[in-house]
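Consider this today:
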Amino acid sequence: METVELEKIVEPIVKWYKENKRMLPWRKQKNPYAIWISEIMLQQTRIEAVKVYYERFMREIPNIETLANIEEEVLLKLWEGLGYYSRAKNLKKAAIKICEEYGGNMPKYYEQLVDLPGIGEYTAGAIASIAYHERVPAVDGNVLRVISRIIGSTKDILLPDTKREMTAKLKAIMPKEAGDFNEGLMELGERVCIPNGEPFCNNCPLQAYCVAYKQGLTNQIPVRIKKTKRKYEERLIFVLEWKDKIAIQKRGEKGLLAGMYEFPNVMKKEGLIIKQILQTWNLEAEQKEALGKAKHIFSHIEWNMEGWRIKVKNKNEQFIWAKKEEIIEKYAIPEAFGYYKNKL
């Protein structure tokens, strides 16, 4: 389908969105700060799950200045449960830059927004179009799926070239109501032109224009060719108890879960026994209890975990020894350790 024909989807999408959009907290007003926070939270997280985190975050951090000045550990605690903690760190970095360069006001143009830490092309497009009506696309996975099906494209949507091509097609037809058009495409992808299972084509305002529907290709389009294999790690997780305190440690400032707090853990190796591990930490066990197995999947790594609760006779200086209440209220423990956190 050529660009001139793609123009036909604009009016139906905008009309459908106005009639069917969900009343979400960040849609109550076109507040660029609220849109920014919601869009970052919605990456990798379902809308229903985000609502509670969003409302709590906005109560505690209602504006850019507060975000720029908040202590990182308080910020990470508020972000706990959303995962991908680098997103929260980038929020603070961007807020600092906005305060320094834009007087604490969210910049209005796409080119300014995309230059901020943690704000990529999609998020910049969403903020610029929804809050400021700039005629720029906001192309995420939902939009790529919808447009691929509409034009019958069999190009791999995971390739940057495919995204660039789709973005160019959309930019050429972007209407004055750019925000409604972008949100309409995203909403359609989330609720009608869904990624898993059969799309609800009979409820789609674009059915008459959709090549994939007409040719019976909705189960084959979009094309996604994953090239990277997931790495698997076997890990032993330790809930170490000394008196009324539990051991945690802070991860390094680079790499996976950088700067987060965790229960002490090691890679599981053949022949490695718990006594030896404790000795490396200068600890001695008094009582042991198996906590069961758990799994957590990151983007490229899968942790298969085996947990142990161990009462120890002494504490060391290597770990932070905190009360259960402190761990729950003060320290941000990543969701990867959620199964064992719930065992406290």
